[in-house]
Amino acid sequence: MSAPLRHYNFSAGPAVLPESVLEEAGRNLMSLGDTGVGIMEHSHRGKPFVAIIERAEALIRKIANVPDGYSVLFLQGGASLQFAMCPMNFLPDGGTADYLMTGSWSKKAGKEAKLFGKVHTACSSEATNFDRIPSPAETTYSDDPAYVHFTSNNTIFGTQFPTEPTPPGDAFLVCDASSDIFSRPVDVSKYGLLYAGAQKNLGPSGVTLAILRNDLLERKCREVPAMLDYKTYVEGQSLYNTPPTFGIYVLMLVLEWIEKEGGLSAIGERNEAKATKLYDYLDSSKLFKPTAAKGSRSLMNVCFVTGNEETDAAFIKYADERGLKTLKGHRSVGGMRASLYNAFPPAGVDKLIEAMQEFESTHAA
Amino acid sequence: MSAPLRHYNFSAGPAVLPESVLEEAGRNLMSLGDTGVGIMEHSHRGKPFVAIIERAEALIRKIANVPDGYSVLFLQGGASLQFAMCPMNFLPDGGTADYLMTGSWSKKAGKEAKLFGKVHTACSSEATNFDRIPSPAETTYSDDPAYVHFTSNNTIFGTQFPTEPTPPGDAFLVCDASSDIFSRPVDVSKYGLLYAGAQKNLGPSGVTLAILRNDLLERKCREVPAMLDYKTYVEGQSLYNTPPTFGIYVLMLVLEWIEKEGGLSAIGERNEAKATKLYDYLDSSKLFKPTAAKGSRSLMNVCFVTGNEETDAAFIKYADERGLKTLKGHRSVGGMRASLYNAFPPAGVDKLIEAMQEFESTHAA
To answer: EC no. (chains A, B) (predicted)?
Structure first.
């Protein structure tokens, strides 16, 4: 059987996965190793799957250097369910949580929190269509927030926090890292709760990774259903009910791949090189312009426009015909978006720049 | 490449899937058809995946003959999250919901409902370790319940409702059908809300199917987070946020397989034949005894014991060595459990009976 043709997939998520991971998953569909039972068909209580979830956790602890006193949790419902679960557990009636509003996802997160307590907008770049990350000097915290929430990378607007914000007083830091988790080294000790949908850098959709500082369980402020209580996952090692077993298996394979690639330092360097090459070209282009402000540019999602919707559409078609897929930007920004997650190959960036140069030469501004 | 050895997998869930489904999924991991992008890597907003989720919905509507006025929803979190989501949406403060307590899962469902309103136990077989489904004569509803909740099949205790209970007055019927959904014909019009984790009869774990009567949305009794609001899924066609795309794809393949096998009538007949053959043997055995009361026996999970824990353990080992896997019963019942979901091949039942006969001949009671 010949290898199927694979295009360059710039999708913002679900996104490209390492080919070696897809091959390994394929080999285990009918029988996980020599168990005679496919990976999707194994009981979550059986030894083979328990070994998988334990290995996934161990790899996360190793790769991200997770300190003692933190739990690694596998949940469902994506970041969107975390938007609700976090305040449901940690925002008391009448209490305040601070949100850094840097895009649509931050706003959605803040909206859910308002169902449980008060939300203070510590900063916002909405006035300029979220084209940048406000500086610490532009960020004002409330007096005694329960926690500070931020979105480390804004998939839609192509911006990314250069470093973590520092929460005031006793507040802990909560991060939606869905679109840049494990794309560069991370200091987990700075976070109280770090969560991410897996479908960009970690695996298929349907698995949510959360890393939680254990002492925060004592700050739980109301009774919540078992499936929405972090304690359930901490105590049950994410096996209270049937978890998304296949998703966790693929996530484990992706973590093995990250480790083999040299861990987060090496991955981070490669991601920086990919994005820098593309931004350098965009900064020099007469036709294409990046939309995110310098200093706030995302290494994961590179958003750019020609300034003319018809030309944007023509380029997207031109690129698509050359095997450069899913470059259309989100409707909030328009234009193009090239998502360059961990598994996106550097050669795809070269191909994209080549296509832009060719297109530019025939469609000069 | 030779086909890998496949054992008979009696797992209660995640459970055996049709081999043709696993083969088809395997063929599309690197590239979904000729798209050049693997099935796990496609954007949930792109045409290829939207076609998949629409086909899955259409197949459900056709196979289960879903009446107009019902929505087909794809959720996450398993039945356990539905235990909370249902009362969160439909049980008003101070209101009462009636629960038919026929096993551990009913009890867990009732426990979550107590966070939102009152729970009336309409019937219970707990006194006899949930060995049977109480009759309608033993079932007493409260005066004006918001809804009546039951578990159509009790995976742990191996019992199954022969027919749906009839809720009183204006109450609607809610069913956790996780372990017998689409295992026989179903009259959806009798239900207000029917939900099921996919991992037994429908696909891999990580997808929850819900079928909801649309007019019930008007009975929503409190503000809830977007991801816990049925309306979000109805209005957003289950694409409010990134759904478990691969799980929905496999579910679609399983639905295609059900249709090809002749639909729910044919599937139901085959399931009845498989279970009847096994119960007939058990009723005639001198060593093995079924644990569920006649008239309440599950066609999905056949639970049985020898009456001696050591002999049970010896048989489980004996069977395991013969490629009959995961026969150990749940600790609440002990003994053995043979799960015979849709995709479990009839030949596996023959093999099991053969092994029991052999074992019995050397380990007579």
So the answer is: 2.6.1.52
